[in-house]
Amino acid sequence: IFHGFYAEEKLVGNLASMSTSERIKAIQKMPENMKKKREIRNKVLKEITEKSRPGRTHFFHCTQCLQGPALLFRRFGNSLAEYFHLLQLWHRTLKIIGAEFGTSVLSYFIFLKWLLTFNLFSFLINFSFITIPQFLAAEPNNVSFTGLELFTGAGYFQQTVLYYGFYTNATISKIKNGPSYNMQLAYIFTVGIYFAICFLILLISMAKSFCRNFINPQTYSGNASRLLCTWDFNITNEKAVKLKQKNLSTQIKEDLMEVNREVLHLSVTERLARIVIHLVSWAASLGTAVAACAGVYFLSTNNAELFVKGHENDLESQAATLVLPIVTSLLNTFIPFFYSWLGHLERFQTPGYQIYVTITRNIILKISIVGILCYYWLNVVAASQSQCWETLVGQDIYRLVLVNFIFCLLGSFFGEFLRRIIGTTVRVSWGPPEFDIGRNVLELIYAQTLTWIGILFSPLLPGIQMIAFSIVFYVKKVSLMMNCQPPRKVWRTAQMTTSFMFLLFFPSFLGVLSVVAVTVWRLKPSEECGPFRGLSSMYAAVSNWIKILEDYTASKWVVWIYYNLITSELFFFILSALVLIITYLYWQIVEGRKTMARLLRKQIIN
Amino acid sequence: MGNKQTIFTQAQLDAYQDCTFFTRKEILRLFDRYRDLAPQLVPLDYTDKPAVTLPYELIGSMPELKDNPFRQRIAEVFSENGDGNMTLDDFLDMFSVLSEMAPRDLKAYYAFKIYDFNNDDYICKSDLEKTVNKLTRNELTPEEVNLVCDKVIYEADVDNDGKLSLEDFQHMIIRAPDFLSTFHIRI
């Protein structure tokens, strides 16, 4: 690559004219060995000091004294990055999992860790900005504590900071005429800013992942890259390596046999029969989803009656509130098995297609169950005349989260532990189970969706979910090591990770945003509890605040921004038109580049 | 943040930080791993740049590498003389390229060199045959190996010269996004 003295001189000159961080990146990226890189680096540094030496002594002193602090600053930044690296949890655990099971199973645990950081962030800001001020203005809790509260979330917990209803609507100030803290604004702004930051983080991660991992489906062919690019260097366990080699040779043999087999020509009747089977199974799966939703809705309206009747302290009726979450989790656990069985019945062209169809059906089921629950909460509970509907919704979500967590642990026990016992003793032909990545990731996304919906009604719910996720991490890791074998088929890990992030963003997060938007803008908060009692909507707190600000000349610009940018439809219309125009331009540029690439490829071949 | 270590001078550590993707702590940790392979050969003081080389057998016995079918090629590619015996510089280089911070082009360049068994800057059919045998532990028959190599060359060879050049390889890597996560050794 580096031929001749001239090329090196030019390179040194180029590097010397770059900024420090660019130069470091360029040196790191050079495909040379360490000795050569160090030589070039030293030459570059010498040239930089030489360039600043001749002539102006003042300038020389200045650059010298700039270089000293610049170097110190970089070293400080490096050590800060190191300490941040210390916070990287579970580095060793992830290494072991990757070593024995490969990158695809590792992607599940990395996804779990990523979701944990969302919950940690939410818990920290909710706790600091909403809960701690509330502690200063807390009312005493007169309800007694029985153990059942941990499961139902009601009773003692109802009068604690766990739920929306406990928070005051007052402006808290400890000292007379001292600094005051407006709880209404704090609540709505904390939740709003958290969701805005989450939106940005999800959007940017998804876009980066999509950009890095996008494959043009027309030119993708499996064999060459399967051979040369997918050997997993992470795997360092001897048994796992042998297993992977065996799987690869089996796959290659299968592929070679497929090439020799002729393409199946199906007659018209056979094709019709296949289409009918596909339609019937789709109808069956959608029908089960609709039936599940109807069941959940019926049960939840039953639940509402229990609360309206007011037997809140009755042990039996409290335990009866657990029926809804248990039934929901049962439906979420067993209907996917039905879908897998349907998937086996229909004979798909490729196994990959079967996995995608099954995952799609599972997503539709889970999203419709969450949807029907949100409809029930927002339309039935909110409109009912019960005392504190937000706390009731918060309790419902708490119970759902808790029961989902318990079912996740049980699922691990039955799905992996018992299945291994069966697979190694009773029916040895089955063998030990493989770790079902798709099902587990969907469970995580479902749990995170519930948590996000619950943030508005129960600010400390992310903390509970954080603890739940940590326990799930350890349980799944132990179960994986003890019970499972490495996956046989090669998963397209990068594509799967992108799809998981997309699923987290698109139905899950955007759905949550719409639910929160409806709650904040349209629903009337309850009269007797919570930070927004007495207002016509939660958003009214912000508009009232803007009206107050109008009287102060110092904050006229805030009022101007509010009236002319945030609440004006014209502004958003212009913004959307601009975004559409820019998208169209970028799309045309991409099309042009594709044509260019095609022409260039033809030139190389000829 | 204190300068408690006496193994390297500050200038040496700065140079290592500029030339690899590692932070100061990681470099010191890697030095400990290197020294653990042969404590009697590796001195604790590198300030006078001693010329210490560890033989391939020790490198190949590291837990991260000992079951990797390509460990010998990896050691040969990153060692100075191409014989698999590595100095500390080579050791740091190797794990830097195999770390997760290394960009795709750098990894593709070194992966290409690893699969190029005869070091002629092209992956020809005999290189591919050796690769396939290492990947499948010699379980395929010679005819199957031949068929597979023909298919790979047919699919990946863009300039139609019967062997894969670095550009062909990089072109293939772009369409395999898993490469970044699989060509990675965590240490």
Automatic annotation (TrEMBL), chain A:
Q: Which GO terms describe its molecular function?
A: mechanosensitive monoatomic ion channel activity
Keywords from the named record: Membrane, Transmembrane, Transmembrane helix
Where is this protein localized, as stated in its record? Answer: Membrane
Pfam families reported in the protein's UniProt record: TMC
The primary location reported for this protein is membrane
Record flagged with keyword Translocase: no
Q: Does the keyword Lipid biosynthesis apply?
A: no
Positions of transmembrane segments: 114-136, 185-204, 275-299, 319-342, 363-385, 397-418, 449-475, 495-520, 561-587
Q: List the GO terms this entry assigns under cellular component, sorted alphabetically.
A: plasma membrane
Membrane topology field:
Multi-pass membrane protein
The organism's place on the tree of life at top rank: Eukaryota
**What family does the database annotate?**
Belongs to the TMC family.
Its protein name is Transmembrane channel-like protein
Q: Which organism is it from?
A: Caloenas nicobarica
Q: What is the lineage of its organism?
A: Eukaryota, Metazoa, Chordata, Craniata, Vertebrata
Automatic annotation (TrEMBL), chain B:
PANTHER family, per the entry: CALCIUM AND INTEGRIN BINDING FAMILY MEMBER 2, CALCIUM AND INTEGRIN-BINDING FAMILY MEMBER 3
- Primary gene name: Cib3
Keywords, sorted A to Z = Calcium, Magnesium, Metal-binding, Repeat
Q: Which residues form the signal peptide?
A: none
Please give the organism. Caloenas nicobarica (Nicobar pigeon)
Q: Name one GO molecular function term.
A: calcium ion binding
Q: What is the name attached to this protein's record? A: CIB3 protein
Q: Please list the GO biological process terms of this entry.
A: calcium ion homeostasis
Start and end residues of each EF-hand domain: 103-138, 144-179
Q: What domain of life does the UniProt record list for this protein's source?
A: Eukaryota
Organism ancestry: Eukaryota, Metazoa, Chordata, Craniata, Vertebrata
Keyword flag Cell membrane = no
In terms of InterPro entries, this protein maps to: CIBP, EF-hand-dom_pair, EF_Hand_1_Ca_BS, EF_hand_dom
